[in-house]
Amino acid sequence: MNHHQHCYSGYEIYNGRPIFYGLGNFCFENIANASKSWHEGYMVELVFGESNPHFMLIPFVQCKDSPMVSLKKESYYNEQIALLNDIINDKECLTNELKAYYNMNKQSIADIFEPFTNRYARWAQRRGLLPYFLSTQHKIMLQNYILCESHRDKLKYFFEE
Known about the structure:
This protein is α+β, with helices and mostly antiparallel strands. It is built from 6 helices and 5 strands, in the order E-E-E-E-E-H-H-H-H-H-H. The protein has helices spanning 78-88, 91-104, 106-111, 119-126, 136-147, 149-160, and strands at residues 11-14, 17-20, 40-47, 54-62, 69-71.
């Protein structure tokens, strides 16, 4: 099971065994401007027996309006999961989707290297009017981008492009 991204993804069956590529956040703080997928996810019920294991997806919405998890009907994500599974099973499509995602995030990746988040402060820093420095919080964020494989892949793409 892969799990880091803060949104759910699809799954595939490989050698008769399921691989789930992201379950989403389970109980993660309410982010006011987060995308819909930030609050949605699914649990997986795996049943092991004498034959091949089977599973059931249990969709939920979490921490959208309050710090709780609410179950949804099983059909809630069926169409979206089917679309994600189609992408996962088509290597060219998956590569194109990944590149589109990385390209959409280029500016946010560039911004992590700038210690100033205010545009006026950045303007002054770029002109030598403010010193360059990294706060402890910024260093921790950079460390996460370097040590976390998912974030590091975005960094590698950013620098390769």
